[in-house]
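[[Sequence with tokens]]
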Amino acid sequence: RLLTKMYIFVYCIKKDKTPSSSRTLLVSYIGMKSQEIPIKAGVIKIAMKSDAEVLDEVVVTGYQKIDRKLFTGAASRVKMDDIKLGGESDISKFLEGQVAGVSIQTPSSTFGTAPKIRVRGASSIYGNQKPLWVVDGVVLEDAVEVSIDQLNSGDLSTLVSSGVAGLNSDDIESMQILKDVSATALYGARAMNGVIVVTTKKGRSGKINVNYSTNIAIRPRPTYDDYNILNSRDQMSINRELYEKGWTNVAKTQFASAHGPYGKMFDLIAKGELNWVDNTDQLNDFLRKYEIANTDWFDALFQTGVQQQHTVSFSGGGEKSTIYASIGYLHDNGWTISDKVNRYTALLKGTFNITKRFSITTQANLSYRDQKLSGVSDSKNDADGVNRWTGRIERNFDNNPFLYALTTSRGIRAYDESGNLEYFRRNYADYNIIDELSKNITGVTVRDMSFLADLKYDILPNLTVSGKISARYFQSETSRTIHENSNEANSYRAGTMPGDSEVVRDANDLLYEKPGSTTGIKYSILPEGGIYSVINDIMSNYYMTANINWNPRIGDDHMFTSLFGTEVRYVDRERNFSDGYGHFFDGGNVSKPSPNYIEYLSMNGKSYFGKEATHDRFAAFFLNYGYSYQGKYTFNGTVRYDGSNRLGKSRTARWLPTWNLSGKWAMKEENFLKDIEWLSTLNLRATYGLNASLGNASNSTLVARSQASSRPFNPDLSELEIYISQLENSDLTWEKQYELNLGADIGFFDNRLNLEFNYYRRRGFDLIGDYQSNGVGGQSVKIGNIADMNSHGFEVAINATPLIIDGFRWNINLNYSYHKNTIKNLITNDWVSKAVSSYGVPVENGPVRGIYSSRFAGLDNQGVPLFYNRNNEKVRYLNVQTDDFSDFVYSGNLEPTTDAGMQHTFSYKGITLSALFTGQFGHKKRVMQNFSYQYNDSQALTSHLKNRWRVAGDENVTNIPAIQDADMMNKNNATDIRTAYQLYGMSDLWLANASFIRLKNLSINYSLPQKWLKATKLNNINIGLQATNLALLWLADREKLGGEDPEFSWSGGTSMPISRQYTMTFSIGF
């Protein structure tokens, strides 16, 4: 058992005349708090107390450090040195597989994008489900608020969605995850999603120590071996079939927005550069070079990514003051040819003991990021970007290299025979992605700085007054630089330039026709120049707390803890944007906006610049009281009163009391168990209470905005008008949740085997979301409290040391958690089209993200997919533009219900070998596929098409639908056939079990023995190798998913999958 108290006896003899009061004795011991004792003659008895932080005997909640014996909640602590992943820049991703009850999914690996983190599953339906981050006792606000659905979108806002992207992992000491209502009670109405408390490193008394650490991570290119994509020969054979069935010809090529080899051939024929009739060999030769191209787009667009991280830190001080300082630099040359990241961090932290009773800790954090990546536009359609017809995220322009490599035909070449870039058509303009990536760039600049002053005054040995004052300024700039000769800029004028076809002009949706025009001629809003768009997000945050902490003891049996405090928070957010059309980047950096653009904006009531601001105000008062008798029976209670200006005007809506009651019974301390030597620990815990969250409430009052009025026929008469952006809801109130937690802590054999078990039940109510209003206020949708939700689950954490012998040590950490949500009283319905998509919808009596499917019934005698309707009849058509789900079947949960992690650590004489396995189970995933009744010859096609329907009777041996004949489509009911192919991709046939087990991390480290370093001035040298995301050891539906990662979201934009990574680490201290 850990040593928590010891006595040292010192016998002092006075040998000179120096007054003893002028001399002191400094006493220190490993794991104990250092003390400075005045010297006096005779025997001095010194009571040494444990340094709780060193011995891990405290729980850090952010407000207080609680002796673990008095802690009654459910919490887990992890040390950064134990979980750090080399080459990973976001500390939140380190928690995957490390803590029971914490689920982490990584929809994108792009720098700055946040993972999806849930503590004990979802506690909200539409609101923020992320845990509350607290860094050194200060709540870390989200500079840009991004919902859980938007994390999957690939939109530009996801690049600044991670609040901890600016933290250097080398500055982090530990993380404490607070899970139940007792552990999170002091955060009241902000803690329904759990709390993660980050503690940074601090200075230690003694000489100045300097430490340098670095890691270099390498990411290999992806390969087609992992994906079911046709090679160029098979692709061109299908292109031939498309030609034979009438989908590709000279006429259709003229108004096609995109084309590949066949389209290019017909375009040259139309221009007279190829002979259609007299030279068949010339045409065959033209197509043959694309048939053998077999372009490796991964090789063309990706490179071996190399990321470097360097940190230099200083630590030291004396009895009166300590200091910790660090500077860090991260450089990533990019996994693709278009992305690059530089990040700089700095931390300065000092603790000053002004007097024996009064101390101040000051801290300054600085972070700067400069990032470049491919140019993409945000998603369109609904707020979450999902097209109601297709169920997919769509955007006007997307140059995502990974998505391009998987969706572009390998028969298209990047370079021609002469080594020059070869162009095909996309968005009605010439396109080569390598050229486009050099001319269409997204830039991100982030500046984040904060200051903290932590004051503490000991009125009495057990009575302390403390307070924190924190200020933070965050500013990000997300820009899009679209050069004048880029494909995107040229797309805005395709069909209007000299020599362009009128067919293209009529088909190009990016052109506009002036209202009232009798000619029908379309115009370009960008007749010349490029585009420069900028979004600036600014956040100013002030945070203040004041606490009184009283911890009296009565004898050795009665221990009390009490805390009273208040918290005030100010958060001001501002967003400025501007869209500059007509900028010449390659022509002197001058701007020449077109009158057509100004006219277009005026006609549609839009603006090319704007500014939005929100002001978030929050106040709270709290009281915590605890009592423990002989360390056996511990009781704890907390009451907190929160208020926010985001909620309704009424006092009952805006202000909310939260509370909890908890207790712990240390059974091992009972006489009837004390003498059982093999039992080291036995604690039983129980908690019940109420906590809450703001959900997705941003404002409850009427929001009226001004805009330019739309005057399509008389733009000169446009004027400012006011429109209702959001209806008022004076009764909008907090999302709330009652939670019961029952837990046990058991230790065996001197705690060489430890088991922690928690079971919980939750009843959430007043959950917030949008619902259909009666439209009287001018809006059909209104925000309100629309649903309840019941949840339950359990967590098991096991720590074991099965072997210690001759310096060899084997340690096992195992965690397993299960969670289930059931939504009740949902008063809003989503459309079927979204429910069958890969993003899912809330389900009454089901989960937060459930997915539905059409029921596949085979193919008909024309190779068209069939489906069962509600009457079990085989049909081609089912209506997805409805909220009636009768024709569709519920297929499962898109979120994992079970998470597991297992880490083995072997150590021997300075060598440490570690292997981390993670797994998620119980969820589904819609398989990425692009089946259609016809295809574009620029598309990459799945290898499943080798088994497609071709002749009557094939419906008996295959379930891959046919490529339809264009003339047949014109003669038959084309709407039914088109819908059938859409339903095919949304069917239960293409839904996979996404459960998996992954070898997450494999590492080996070597620390040089101290006896080797004694002759030098070095304190330590450590070298190591790591392999991260090494392998998917088991994938439940590998045949369907192919090489598709079950965690990755195929949304394009800024999204990138996680990849294998190999890292070398090195650190030296002196």
About this structure: The longest strand covers residues 558-584.
